[in-house]
Amino acid sequence: MPNNIPSSLVSAFLEKVNSQPNKVLLYFEEKEYSYKDIYESVVFMAGGLKALGIEKTDRVALYLENSPSFISMYLAILWVGGIVVLVNTRYKKLELSHILNDSTAKLLISDKERSTEAKKIILEIDSLKELIILNHDLAQDSDLLANIKEAQAIIRPVDLKLDDIAVIGYTSGTTGKSKGAMLSHRNFVSNSVALTKAWHWSKNDNLLLVLPLFHMHGLAVGFHGSIIQGSSISLKRKFIAEDVYKELSKGNITMFFGVPTMHKRLLELAQNNDIKPKGLRLMVSGSAPLSPQIHSEVEKEFGIKILERYGMTETIMNTGNPYLGERKAGTVGIPFEGINLRIANEENQELAVNETGEIQLRGPNICSGYWQRPNATKETWTTDNWFKTGDLGFKDNDGYLTINGRAKELIISGGFNVYPRELEELIAELDEVTEVAVVGLVDPDFGEKITAVVVGNLSKEKIIEHCATKLAGFKKPREVFFVDKLPRNALGKVQKHILIKQITS
Prior knowledge:
alpha/beta
């Protein structure tokens, strides 16, 4: 584990506020916000949270898109000792209800764009005491919290320990119900210190951050890494390829983090544009496999090799190709400092080099377990305390990790995790459906295309519409096939590998 890590995310932020108050932390929509500006908004927001009764370990859900207000509110929740519950902004009532009920969140923070979904649920969650709608304007939102009855600026944060829980990040499971990974200040700061060291991150860097802050890649890598090093962030609400390409072409961005779909879109723009991005020293890809072809074409067009990394909600970042040294296309590199990784068989015994097995981890980056799910926690750790990722892979002779499958059923589409069971249960609700299986097919744009295979007498449109009205848009099937029956083994389990062959042959 790296030495001399900050005692909490809040102390890491305060250290930079004290040492460089006027340095720009955020560039956002033609405005600049210094470390001092964000600090001042945090102390007022923290006062508002305190006046609303938020105490240490209370859960506060963030259901809003990227903005300076997200950053300040996130820090304010930690400031008063609360636990942040991250919510995907694409989630709808069904998913939102589960997360709020499961976490017993006391407060929901949303924005105008999501206020309709948020208001649908406010009276249905027993634990929920308040709904606050923000405007994405830092001054207005700070005033909103500061004007709550009895609110006052809280200059000093509560006493935080490294093992205090900072965030509950929800990750889907094969049961179809997402479960909350409990992530501590130790998990985050140790990982950020190791990662920023590995990537030669400095206070002079300017990160173009388009990844959502509700996601570990955006929050725990992009934002946390920046405050650990005291660098700057050019923050966007979301990824719009043309806008990002224009920003990268100005020459003042040194780092860009994305998912393969983003890199593919930027590559397409570069191949038809005489103006190329400049000034970049680091491009990182993760959340889904990056094809060797895109890897080589980006190097040709941008003059820089993409650095692939591997992480997950429960463990933040695990491995990465080296900043200095060979970046092997198709691999996700070597473990970050302080993290141990082994490839194990079904008996949890370590396998030899080049043998495929489950990727298992140990280190200060790994969550302490799943919120209110002792059985799931027990099942996910081995008896000798290795975390079972559910991913399959192998290490080569140089120690580089290649991920080549998943032990758990999981589809990664556009960088987002989608578990088939959730969709299968939803589609099975339709009266006309007799059987259903959901699989991922290879897709050049999204990595995997969510595909439903149905036994039943109904239309493709009805199935897609049913899913789209209940779940986040990225989870709906992109394709639907109808078959007479699903292939099953002697125990009745659907044989999805055979099913995929049937519908693709």
